[in-house]
Amino acid sequence: MKKKELVNKEVEYKMLNIEDTKYKTIITKKFENRKVWQIADPSLVSSLIPGTVSKIYINEGDSIIEGDKLLVIDAMKMKNTIKVPYSGVIRKVNVTEGQSIPKGFIMIELDIQLVKVKE
Amino acid sequence: MSLKSKTIELLKRREQAQSGGGEKAIEKQNAMGKMTARERVLALLDKDSFNEYDLFVEHEARDFDMNTKVLHGDGVIIGTGTIYGSPVCLFAQDFTVAGGSLGLSHARKITKIMDHALKLRIPLIGINDSGGARIQEGVNSLAGYGDIFFRNTLASGVIPQISVILGPCAGGAVYSPALTDFVFVVDNISKMFITGPEVIKTVLGEEISMEDLGGARVHAEITGNAHFFATTEQECFEQIKKLVTFIPWNNSRKALSFKPKEPKKEFNIESVVPGDPKQPYDVRNVIRAVADDSDFFEIYELWAQNIVIGFARMNGETVGFVCNQPMYLAGVLDVDSSDKAARFIRFCDAFNIPIITLVDLPGYLPGVDQEHAGVIRHGAKLLYAYSEASVPKVTVILRKAYGGGYIAMGSRHLRADFVFAWPSAEIAVMGPEGAANIIFKKEISEAEDPEKMRKLKVKEYKDRFANPYVAAAKGYIDTVIEPKETRRLLVHAISVSKDKTNTNPQKKHGIPPF
């Protein structure tokens, strides 16, 4: 596609609401593709960077205490140990050892609950 | 040996040194649709104006059998020349010589011409086409890059610096262009990134092509790293030459004056802007309706299109335009548009170019992504740049100027010298709909027919505040003008401001919200 076509391509106007007023305008690609905000679900453990799962410490159904090791992800030449931030039970494990995962991949799902602290 | 035979010897040596990486490498360069470094230099500069230095410089590397390798000019051409008669210093990396890789001698040639540019106080143009650091030279290559970045920084705001990306420019190398004032890219030829597709794939497992990662279009449309986008190298050189006509040689000069020309008749200022503030139009046509010869040289045409920036001439003198663009995102300010305008304002201020601001915006773009992307910090750059700028500043409010957007867009409060408003200007804290919903919340909700009451109250607010006269009564705007008077008043304002003095408090430097 030539630059001229890019600039002069058929324009499609939409409405953009700013403080209760609707303006007729072109919505940019960047705005249209913006990341929609979602409330974080604390029961889902997802990857912060892409990498490879090299070790899994837990199984589905295990009871875990805040601070227990969940798994190790090899990423950026580092072994990153992921610990569980809440106490609870492992509901589901979505990864296997050796699996490569992208950023934001939901690796483990928890049932968060209050359990007795280890003796 | 006679002088004649010595001269013949020189010519022989020169021819050899100018052969770059040899026929095969040149063929390969051409096959990629790229000109050679020497062809580029000659295409960019005025005919017969180029003088080359350090043609016979050689590398001094000894490791990895480098002592047996001859690299002509060590992979970079440096020199001085002219563009439409204006002097420039220039370097061009030669990809045909060891992939244009940067070793110590290569870097020393570049820093030599950079030092020249700063000393001679003339613009610097760098043509980048390099595979990156010459790995065989180890830390010397890194030292070379550091020396270049340092000089880019010192030269910033003293001489205009232009980077042209005509090939790969990867890893640390990208930071030299990033430190310069204008970056030019060409479709399918320019590639810029910190870490390439190979590394990204190995480390992160993400697969992406070079073009999608850091091609010309990516930098012109998404990242904002490139100011100018061209489809061919020749088009790119034409853009550079045009830019050079708009900017001064250095920060103690003014841009060259041209013969004044009236705008073209086809751009009728009175028919460009719709009366309804909710309807879009292309603000570039307002610029064309007031600028000399209707010639507007836009910067960042494809990035953050909700604000328009660029150069034009008023009565023969270069000016910088900063304008909200109602055609895109209603002309709101957001992270990218604030960044875009702020940096341009600082360029204009550093190089004695008056700033004309055309205002028509509903405010800032609402959204979680904007807030989380730091619109506060980025938006502050625009306030900082306008406040600090001491060049003549003329603002015309065309239609809406609501809330924080009104303040940010070159308002009186940020030291604008002249603020004009069209009769269609609406200077208020927010749009009538939003304001009525807040001020008359109770009346509206308690009314028998809330919709009818809302409309009534919106009208009431509109009648009272949606005009330029409230601000004019307080002296925040100087004159309410007829649209057709705009050019005459802009030309007048710029011409009476020629000897403007405006100083900032003594300081080492400010601390802008980078």
Mean pLDDT over all positions of chain A: 85
Radius of gyration of chain B: 26 Å
Q: Can you count the beta strands of chain B?
A: 17
Query: Regarding CATH, which class of the largest domain in chain B?
Result: Alpha Beta
Percent in helix of chain A:
under 10%
**End-to-end distance of chain A:** 68 Å
Offer a concise description of the structure.
The complex is a heterodimer of chains A (119) and B (514). With 119 residues, chain A is mostly beta strands.
Topology, element by element:
The complex is a heterodimer of chains A (119) and B (514).
Chain A: H1 3-8, E1 13-18, E2 21-26, H2 29-32, E3 44-46, E4 51-56, E5 63-64, E6 69-75, E7 78-83, E8 88-93, E9 100-101, E10 106-112
Chain B: H1 3-17, H2 23-31, H3 37-44, E1 51-53, E2 76-83, E3 86-93, H4 104-120, E4 124-128, H5 139-155, E5 161-165, E6 168-170, H6 175-179, E7 182-186, E8 191-193, H7 197-204, H8 210-214, H9 216-223, E9 228-230, H10 233-246, H11 269-272, H12 284-290, E10 297-299, E11 307-314, E12 317-324, H13 335-350, E13 355-361, H14 368-372, H15 375-388, E14 393-402, H16 403-408, E15 418-421, E16 426-428, H17 432-439, H18 441-446, H19 450-465, H20 469-473, E17 479-480, H21 486-496
Parallel strand pairs in B: 3-4, 4-5, 5-7, 6-8, 7-9, 12-13, 13-14, 14-15, 14-16, 15-17
Antiparallel strand pairs in B: 1-2, 2-3, 10-11, 11-12
Helix pairs in contact in B: 4-5, 13-15, 17-19
